[in-house]
Please model this.
Amino acid sequence: MQESIKNRKMEWEESVLNKVLQKFPERRETFTTGSDKPVERLYLPEEETKGDYLEKIGFPGEYPYTRGVQPTMYRGRLWTMRQYAGFGTAEESNERYKYLLDQGQTGLSIAFDLPTQIGYDSDDPVSMGEVGKVGVAIDSLKDMEILFSGIPLDKVSTSMTINAPAAVLLAMYIAVAEKQGVTRDKIRGTIQNDILKEYIARGTYIFPPAPSMRLINNIFEFCSKEVPKWNTISISGYHIREAGSTAVQEIAFTIADGIEYVRNAIKTGLDVDQFAGRLSFFFNAHNDLFEEVAKYRAARRIWARIMKEKFSARKEKSMMMRFHTQTAGSTLTAQQPDNNVIRVTIQTLAAVLGGTQSLHTNSKDEALALPTEDSVRVALRTQQIVAHESGAANTVDPLAGSYFIEQMTDEIEKEALEYIEKIEKMGGMVRAIEAGYVQKEIQDSAYRYQKAVEKGERIVVGVNKFTVEEAEPKGLLKVDPALREVQIKKIKEIKESRDGSSVESSLTALKKGAADESVNLMPLILDAVHAYATLGEITHVLREEFGEYRESIVL
Amino acid sequence: MELVKGITAGNIRSIARAVSIIENNMEGKEELLDELHPHTGNAVVWGITGPPGAGKSTLADKLIQKERDRGKKVAVIAVDPSSPFTGGSLLGDRLRMQTHATDPGVFIRSMASRGHLGGISTAAFDAVKIFDAAGYDTIMVETIGVGQTEVEIIELSDIVMLVLVPGMGDEIQAMKAGVMEIGDIFVINKSDREGAERLKAEVEYVLMISEKPEESPQKTICMTSARDNTGIEELYEILQSKYKEDLESGFLTEKRKRRLTKELSNLFYIKTREFLEEQLSVQAQMDSWIEGIYKKEIKPYKFISEKMKELTKEYVKG
Amino acid sequence: MERKTRIEIAKPGLDGHDRGAKYIARALKDAGYEVIYTGIRQTPESIVATAIQEDVDFVGLSLLSGAHNELFPRVVELLKAEGADDIIVFGGGVIPEEDVESLTKKGIQAIFRPGTPISAVIDFIESKKKTTAA
Ligand code: B12
Ligand SMILES: Nc1nc2c(ncn2[C@@H]2O[C@H](COP(=O)(O)OP(=O)(O)OP(=O)(O)O)[C@@H](O)[C@H]2O)c(=O)[nH]1
Ligand SMILES: [Mg+2]
Model:
């Protein structure tokens, strides 16, 4: 081994590894292969390297984090297996969550229905057909109380896929916790809160960029003081990729989003190290195993350097890109759905070899309907098999040093940086979105991909090759269409029983606050939530003040 | 004609059908336009042109609102290019005005250019007449936005807005007279961005050196942000006062008569050509003529001149 | 003179899945049709108003969020109410096969599910187009 690397290794062991080992011992004393050969924690270049190993690749748990954000990675603790779930009423979802917790799951991941995500109550005419369909319907604090009844909020960590109205749902969560006697500094969890990718790829936006960014800053600031264990944003490339982007575009646009959030927060007077450690990311795991692994490694390196060089972060945590991963729903087919289990296995491996912190695996009925309990189980088992049987979790960053992987990592990094630079030149991500540039880049990639499938240049097994006649799939999950009536009845009861004057005064205060940019809206939203103002009422006030965003795609 | 009754009564379905009839050059088109002719002449036509992505549609969206606030009925004709290869078209302007889709006082119609150069489709001229006859107070026509070639919008409109955006200063310099002649009102949109003031100065400069005041009324510059809905009120005011001015000065009448002249001579041209081609059985014989020219058996100019002689001998005296 | 076929591609409801709809819109353009794409979050009312103003021959609805049983038939009903039921309604997206029959009964003339090649959609349009040529 090269002298310089050997020396650095000793330093790393002392300054990084040992500290972690003392606090978090590894899962086992020794790790071995399936045939009992020993497996070491970390493998390093044996031969002479070009000399930039330390700078570019380095050691896990150390800048620039190419090899991962922890020194022991999965030898210390496996990634969190977190399945995204929720549908129907708060009552039904509550039952499902309790069941999952009984099964030993420690984290919840809440899916909301579309009206909730776009800030409409269930009784709004536009909610027709959508209530409880793709997630749980939340209209007021009452629903949130039901959703978490009997679930101790000091014991679980909760991830909520909520963006435009994230402030309201977070306020409801805090309110429920406090009613349980859990103070806000004790609660743990994540809100997605990533509005930029909603404009780009996901579609559940409400307000225009400027007031949306303000709401995000308000959350950053409020949480840094009052809810210190909360992850205030999950900057997501997942949806960008699912909308049809390439791997390079996925990380480039996500990191460009990240830059915009950091810049904005700093502009409002926050110190970078005060909030950056609570930023987390969310990526996709696609079928092309090696490209995906290289992608995660490149993303970590880019982010670390940007945080250090561009934003002068000092804390290690501010430079570490921690991310959640989900397997690629858009690769899963309606045809021969069993094949999807194999695709998800490859994707799981990609995420694990790429060093993810948590993972959701999609179910085989992905392209047919919301998953059934049975298919969710197989999806979870896929992760467990990779974790416990494949050996992929036994050493850190196993693919490092592969000529292919390292070169691919460099290339993806380079191409992503070109995009990031281009967006910066356009004046940042908000500009690029308003001009429709990012959306157009993704649309074009999606179109090229689809055309290649149509022409048979790209093979999708079971779709354009190796097809069979198939019977109609049976036993798909069905959501009760009468749910809306149930929710409407609940809203009516709430509106009759609550104190109308405190609703009114809290909403008036919120409206006034919204008009004054220097006001942090979180406390005002909390007041309105406590008064049982509905999500729709709160959002309506903000819509009036902020206006609504309109899609800026270019066809 | 049933359809004419429908149109003048403002029936949406009838209007939509009529536009398709002219767009596809279908049977009954000419009769339809003749029947509608007496009902036309009441609407104001605003042209909106400018480079792709300048914010023409977004601006139209905001102007629709202004007109609606005053109880006016508005029609928009939004033209997008057709693919020269497939003839297909993805019409995207409407997307920006879709909040008005269900307003009974607003009619938005997307049109593909269908190979016609000049930034609008041929049918746009006639579509304007349909909306006019149907009682729309204001008709906005949005062009494709390719630039230099879009002079037709002047012929079609009472007032033309040329939409420009910051970041295209150099292009303005290069355009000089050419495109700048197109606009009556220069709208500097996206003024929420930096560089808007500078663009304004540049436009002022170009106008100063190219304007010939004796020929046309004063041109105006207006700064807007269609996104933030700022400057729209001012633009709207300018549109109103410009219209009033042009009407009172007689400039508008003159302009409209020029448009009619152009249209009629165009019709003459088309009809004459159709007539001649039929007389000479051009369609049927074209292949054999070409064969002859290709084999050098026929000299093209001599051939044409003989054909013309043959055709016009009864009209040519002496 | 043959009438150029015009198609509205629309996304009713709150569903934001637009990858498929945008693909279909663009692929139909490439196939030579005039396509009007209205963006996400359209109501059945705005879809129908658009169809009528634009005098389209077809309305293609795209929905992946599961609200198709409520929203698709509503579009057909409103078209009928406007006397525009000569406009052909079809759709696509994540739609369970068991729902296809009832949707067809309610006037949605074809449903295209994930994995559909564009040629199938074009074949459908061509087969129906003849009867709408005015
Ligand atoms: C990509 C994707 C996303 C992307 C969407 C990106 C985008 N901008 O489009 C992201 C990650 C953002 C996303 C988010 C969500 N998703 Co999603 N998503 C998918 C996924 C994996 C693929 C869809 C896709 O784009 N495929 C590729 C395109 C080209 O195919 P397609 O849309 O199916 O279109 C083809 C055909 O269906 C047909 N077609 C479609 N429309 C039309 C229209 C016409 C006129 C015609 C002729 C044909 C046609 O032709 C196309 C070409 O073959 C599907 C599952 C799947 N594999 O289908 C889930 C799926 C649709 N999503 C689902 C859910 C629940 C969501 C969320 C609501 C989750 C939540 N609770 O927050 C969110 C919210 C999104 C929102 N705003 O509405 C569910 C819906 C469940 C249901 N129907 O019961 C699905 C089915 C997954 C699942 N099994 O749970 N999703
Ligand atoms: N920042 C900013 N963006 C704007 C403004 N007006 C329009 N836009 C954005 O610019 C993009 C193009 O707007 P359109 O209204 O479609 O422009 P257009 O000139 O009609 O475009 P084409 O019809 O394609 O030539 C959209 O993303 C709009 O949201 C504005 O005043 N400021
Ligand atoms: Mg436009």
